């Protein structure tokens, strides 16, 4: 996958996360994921209660459309991941951009990384002519809903899911 390094549109804010401990200041980029990110991505996806091995992640990366997986990376490690998809539809004047997964490593939350990933996704949606950005978020992830609302997303639909037998 191409390595498109994009400086964070909004530098992560440095906030005190707990008494006496300030989050570190680290240069960070948002870029497209590569197959050698599989180990870090497997850890993040597993934290979202979707257990996956690095080998499984590598296989999935290989078939996902180019540019679907963005990572936030400090100078040494991957600390967040977002997946996005662009869907052409009949009933709107342009495609719909959907964020299908977002996670920031627990110890790095609250520094603007999630917001920067969403902004990077929105930029890509705009470049591809999308008329709507949407996100699906599991009902159990309540704090994430407040995060999306803070970023200007509004709850407009219910999603009905059904597991399909193999
Ligand atoms: C949701 C998540 C991605 C947010 O990432 P983050 O890097 O911690 O969020 P940011 O620091 O970019 O926050 C951006 C804004 O949202 C607000 N926000 C973040 N989490 C929030 C929460 N739980 N409740 C209310 N507001 C929240 C921040 O205060 C900030 O607002 P501000 O600019 O007014 O200060 C992160 O908490 C996470 O990975 N959660 C677990 C996985 C998950 O639920 N993913 C969503 C699946 S679709």
Automatic annotation (TrEMBL):
Q: Which UniProt keywords apply?
A: Acyltransferase, Transferase
InterPro entries noted in UniProt:
Acyl_CoA_acyltransferase (IPR016181), Bact_Acetyltransf (IPR050832), GNAT_dom (IPR000182)
Among SUPFAM superfamilies, the record links this protein to: Acyl-CoA N-acyltransferases (Nat) (SSF55729)
Signal sequence span is: none
Residue ranges of the N-acetyltransferase domain? 28-166
Please provide an example of a Pfam family that matches this protein in its UniProt record. Acetyltransf_1
Report which superkingdom the organism of origin falls in. Bacteria
A molecular function GO annotation = acyltransferase activity, transferring groups other than amino-acyl groups
Tell me what this protein is called: Acetyltransferase
Taxonomic source organism: Roseiterribacter gracilis
Lineage of the species this protein comes from: Bacteria, Pseudomonadati, Pseudomonadota, Alphaproteobacteria, Rhodospirillales
């Amino acid at each position: 996958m191409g390595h498109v390094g994009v400086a964070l549109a909004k530098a992560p804010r440095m906030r005190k996360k707990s008494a006496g401990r300030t989050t570190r200041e680290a240069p960070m980029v948002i870029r497209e994921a590569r197959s050698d990110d599989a180990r870090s991505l497997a850890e993040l996806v597993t934290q979202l209660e979707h257990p996956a091995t690095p080998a499984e992640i590598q296989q999935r990366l290989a078939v996902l459309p180019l540019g679907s997986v963005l990572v936030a990376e400090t100078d040494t490690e991957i600390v967040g991941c977002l997946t996005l998809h662009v869907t052409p539809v009949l009933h709107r004047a342009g495609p719909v951009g959907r964020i299908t997964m977002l996670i920031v490593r627990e110890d790095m939350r609250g520094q603007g990384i999630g917001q920067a990933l969403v902004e990077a996704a929105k930029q890509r949606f705009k470049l591809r002519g999308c008329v709507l950005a949407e996100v699906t978020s599991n009902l159990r992830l309540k704090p994430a809903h407040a995060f999306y609302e803070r970023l200007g997303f509004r709850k407009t639909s219910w999603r009905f899911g059904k597991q399909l037998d193999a």
